[in-house]
Amino acid sequence: PRLAVLVSGRGSNLQALLDAMASGALAAEVVGVFSDRPDAAALQRVGAPMRWSEDARAFPDRAEFDARLADAVQACHPDWVICAGYMRILGEAFIERFRGRLLNIHPSLLPKYRGLKTHARALAAGDSDHGASVHFVVPELDAGAVVAQVHIPVLAGDTPDTLAARLIPREHALLVAVVALATAGRLAERDDVVYCDGQPV
Ligand code: GRF
């Protein structure tokens, strides 16, 4: 199976996917890495022929950037499109084009804390439990059906940074596990319900 991976920053989730492929834990191939930020460190994790980036901020509107991105992603014929630290909101046209094979990792226990600053918001709310979710992407932000989540405890003295640092290795494992299910053909979404091996999750 062919994966397109969308990134905006450091790319540690992308690296986890690449490492899992290299070790044989994940039978898939990254065929393209796409970014809205040409300076994203994540882009350096793959060879130049696999990279695509345009500065989204240089585009007059979201729809135009989205159309360009969608064409570039489509050109590599992915089976799955994985948002792995992709920080720009995807437009409806992009999402409809890849719907059902478009996954995102989000650093909160959805439906809590859609959007940004999830660690700070969990701390501010006094949560004792935090985590990350992998979900199918739908037009409403971070609102698609959740495939799986990982939980970590919030500890006394945690800051957004300590929480994020403790969560990130668990995010990596979660993302690899879900992508492994997806690429094995075991995962599907229909009418906002996730199916694993044909059974609703
Ligand atoms: C991760 O916490 C991801 O959940 C969030 O942004 C971070 C990206 O990290 N959306 P990286 O770029 O994969 O290292």
UniProtKB/TrEMBL annotation:
Keywords: Purine biosynthesis, Transferase. GO terms for cellular component: cytosol. Gene3D superfamilies: Formyl transferase, N-terminal domain (3.40.50.170). InterPro entries: Formyl_transf_N, Formyl_transf_N_sf, GART. The record marks 142 as: Raises pKa of active site His. Residues 2-179 form the Formyl transferase N-terminal domain. Catalyzes the transfer of a formyl group from 10-formyltetrahydrofolate to 5-phospho-ribosyl-glycinamide (GAR), producing 5-phospho-ribosyl-N-formylglycinamide (FGAR) and tetrahydrofolate. SUPFAM superfamilies: Formyltransferase. This is Phosphoribosylglycinamide formyltransferase. Pathway: Purine metabolism; IMP biosynthesis via de novo pathway; N(2)-formyl-N(1)-(5-phospho-D-ribosyl)glycinamide from N(1)-(5-phospho-D-ribosyl)glycinamide (10-formyl THF route): step 1/1. N(1)-(5-phospho-beta-D-ribosyl)glycinamide binds at residues 11-13. The gene is purN. Belongs to the GART family. GO terms for molecular function: phosphoribosylglycinamide formyltransferase activity. Pfam families: Formyl_trans_N (PF00551). The active site is at 106 (proton donor). The lineage of its organism: Bacteria, Pseudomonadati, Pseudomonadota, Gammaproteobacteria, Lysobacterales.
